[in-house]
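Throughout this review, each integer encodes one residue's backbone shape. One record appears below.

===
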Amino acid sequence: MGLFKAQAGRVYNLEIRFNNHHLVPGQVIPMRRGAIELGGRPVTEAEEMLQEAERAAREADVAIVAVGLNQDWECECYDRDSMKLPGKSDELEPPSSYHSSVISDVEIQPLKTTSSIANTPVAILSFMVQNGPEKELRDFIKVELGAGEKKTCSVQLTMEAFAYSDTSANNSTVDAGDYKVLLESTSRDIKESVNMFIETKASLLEYPKLK
């Protein structure tokens, strides 16, 4: 994204060039489509906009906030360095309607609600892998719990969970290397983690070769 500060009263000649043959990280073929957006807006400071949003939230009975990227610019993980929201959106962190859950023991996962009402907590399995995204969601399970109730749940982790679509091989591939499996109640609340190592890179068609 480029940013140009214009002066009031001046006339500018603009030339926009677009090339879709530059490969983005992780791609092996050029993109067949692209998008360009040209427009203008008043110059604003991020901190001022954050304070304005906080004032609006304080004056409202309920704040329903829609944030993130729109459908024109949202891509599949290769366009961002992290899963953080754009700008200072993460700093808003308004009080929300929520419940907390307690998760323990990686092999057997008891879920216990600490809420005074019935709810449905979620146990999340994510991966961290070297030279990959900071974290990838791979599986999750929802469990309906009454107030103070405790249940045991399990999630089966197969080799398919480690695979990704490899266009160069025209197949799904599992990379060799170190992996860390995370058990979470939310993306920010890691309860347990397990380190593991896959010795051999192979496609899912070569599943018996995987170790």
Remarks:
- The chain has two domains: 10-31+42-96, 99-211.
- The first helix runs from residue 46 to 59.
- The helical segments are 46-59.
- Confidence is low (pLDDT under 50) at residues 96-109.
